[in-house]
Amino acid sequence: MRSARSTRTARAQWVVLALALAAPACRLPEPEPAPRLLLVEKGPTQAFFDSQGRLLRLLVDADSDRRADTQTLYREDGTPLVAEIDTDRDGVVDRWERFAVDGALESVGLSRRTRGRPDAWDYPDRSGSVVRREYDDDGDGRVNRVERPGDASHEPGVEELDTDGNGKPDRRLYRGADGRIEAIEIDRNEDGVWERRELVRDR
User: Fold this and answer.
1) Other beta carbons less than 10 A from residue 138's beta carbon
2) Which of 42, 132, 155, 167 is deepest in the core (most CB within 10 A)?
3) Where are the beta strands (DSSP E) in 19-149?
4) Would you call 11 helix, strand, or coil by DSSP?
5) Cα 155 to chain center, whole Å?
6) Structural domain spans, the chain
């Protein structure tokens, strides 16, 4: 007659054997290999391509200081998506370009006062002429001034101001071809309706 101890030992051996037999079925699948990237260097330029030969990223070191002055990311169809540029070569990006799906330049962010992030934005039309400019003058990350430059027909330029800092324009300035303010509109309750217009007389 078996003792209780020998019975427990036999059971433990069966458990170990069962786990050993089941172990191969519980193995995790092998991870998929990472996609291969191809780096091509030529002079000041480094280009990264995927395994299909599509351009992913382009780096340019124009002054050969071993730091990229321009980095451009591309969509799968080869059109540019965004670009970061260090225009003054101090190691910090100060220009951000964003492109439309057809590759046309859509907007340009500029760092005027805030180091390392944009505080002004230009929006060009298809010809490259800037049709709108936005400014973050107090550095809070919100636009508080918008300019719409006049065109070649001498249409007055328009400048919208957010004077109380709530993110809504409440003043609109009209400038002549010489840049002087000709008229002011006021939206007192900031509902998008300009209730008051004042002409500015020459002094």
Assistant:
1) 13
2) 132
3) 38-42, 45-49, 55-60, 70-74, 80-85, 95-99, 105-110, 120-124, 130-135, 145-148
4) helix
5) 32
6) 35-143, 151-203
In 129-170, beta strands by DSSP E: 130-135, 145-148, 157-161
The helix or strand, by DSSP H or E, that contains position 171, with its residue range, turns out to be strand 171-175
- Per-residue pLDDT tens, the chain, 203 aa: give them: 455 555 555 555 554 444 444 444 556 666 666 667 898 899 999 999 998 899 999 999 988 888 899 999 999 999 999 999 999 999 999 999 999 999 999 999 999 988 899 999 999 998 888 888 999 988 888 888 888 875 444 455 788 888 888 878 888 888 777 778 888 888 888 888 877 777 776 65
pTM: predicted TM-score of the whole model, two decimal places:
0.65
Residue pair 58/51 in contact by the 8 Å Cβ criterion:
no
The alpha-carbon radius of gyration of the chain (Å, integer) is 31
d(CA 134, CA 115): 17
